[in-house]
Amino acid sequence: MTLSKTLARLGVVASMLAPASAYAHPGAGEAGGLVHGFMHPVGGIDHVLAMVAVGAFAALMGGRALWLVPAAFVAMMAFGGVVGFEGVQLPMVEIGIAASVIALGAAVALRWNPSVAVAAGLVGLFAIFHGHAHGAEMPLGASALGYAAGFMIATALLHVAGIVIGVATGLAGRGSLLAARIGGSAIALAGVGLLAGWL
């Protein structure tokens, strides 16, 4: 697969996400739980950065991690969503989300290559915080099943975007290390900004 084909696929993923963003504006009409759930991760920079970083991290690890690491995130996020739906309090959710952006950005920047089990466990832990935030903020009257399906689909698409970015930088040859360092560092610095309340 050439770099141009990889970038074209990233464009397809972006175009899939773009039309749905129109529903985030007031007055667009009631679209139900599915669209509300879909828009929740896509509408928050903290969620977008963490989920794209998960995909890039998985791509840089390669092999089974390419699907196991994102799958672990989605599964544990669903668990966190149920906890949030049920109104169970989870301490330091926002701090956990910001920490996930910092840690996952750093993992990409450093091209950290742990075992698949360690990587899946780490992203799964962070996913609980993201899922709790999604579940706790479900709109009144929305279908819980549709809402959950929406945020899981959006998350999976963001992971795919991160994988495509990770694969694209991996194909860039000698520039791949620099690309990973710049991209991962930018994500981690954004996480610091989120933690400090600047973003």
A few lines on this structure:
This protein has 199 residues and is mainly α. It has 8 helices and no strands.
* End-to-end C-alpha gap: 37 Å
> What's the alpha carbon Rg, rounded to whole Å?
16 Å
Large-scale geometry: globular
Sheet with most strands: none
* Beta strand %: under 5%
Per DSSP, the total helix count is: 8
State the helicity in percent bands: over 70%
Low-pLDDT windows of residues: 1-30
Number of spatially distinct domains? 1
Number of strands: 0
Secondary-structure-based class equals mainly alpha
How do the helices and strands follow one another from N- to C-terminus?
HHHHHHHH
Explain this structure to me?
The protein has 199 residues and is an all-alpha fold. The protein has one domain. It contains 8 helices and no strands.
Q: What is this structure's SSE topology?
A:
Elements: H1 3-17, H2 32-42, H3 45-61, H4 65-85, H5 93-109, H6 116-136, H7 144-170, H8 176-196
Helix pairs in contact: 1-7, 2-7, 3-4, 3-5, 3-6, 3-7, 3-8, 4-6, 4-7, 5-6, 5-8
